[in-house]
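Throughout our pipeline, every protein is held as a single compact record rather than as scattered files. Such a record has a labelled line for the sequence and another for the backbone structure tokens. This encoding replaces a full spatial description with a residue-level series of whole-number codes. For reference, a complete record is included directly beneath this paragraph.
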Amino acid sequence: MAAPGLGGTLPPVTAKSNTSTRETGNVPPTASSHTTGSPNLSASERLANNTSLSTRLQPLLPAGATVATASTGFRNQGEFVSALHVSRNLNIPFAGLKAKLTGDHPESLGQAVHDLRPDRSRSTVKTDVRLAERQADLDLDSARLAARLSANPTLAARAQALLPAGTNLQTAAAGFESEHQFLLAEHVSHDLNIPFAQLKAQVTGTDHVSLEQAVRALRPALGSSTIKADLKVARQETKTDLQAAEGQREIADRH
């Protein structure tokens, strides 16, 4: 059985079931599947304390803009990050898109894109928005993972030890959804002598594949039974890492 988070290909963007309600305009724009943290905090307030996410988003901003100023007016991080991706993906000026989303009469992201790019059909716009939301999910997941790694020295040390010398831990973890997914890929890379960058590209890239499929592609000489056995070992190693990290966290909490 493949491990959670790496066990199969992600559905295409058109098949996403938990679609944000902001994309269709069928409900008020205040609803969003991407709201994170306290609902009383704005996107800017959350980002002010989230350096990992801010750093990840900076390259998506227009020249001269800052995350703090660009996110002002957005109700939550998910809405802001999705807008950034739509702006970049479709070459829509961010200022114009932001005005549509945060003005006196805020529109859904889908409606704003339709207004600004009337050449695109509504079905195409829905696909565009779903893609941007998936990209936003990845950004938010990666930032949460980076924060958890930074907060747990034991987990960070174990993860760092599995990486090639000189590799930045936060950079290596970017794109993975959880500690489990990241550590599992690290162990497989280390155990089978597969370059981590190549394995990561297979399981976190645009066309996600399962970890088993990635190993087959990168180590075609290995038989199916051998790959399954290798994955079983890597899962146990990952479990040991997470248990050690949790034990250290419990000790820290008691003191």
Notes: Residues 152-254 form one domain.
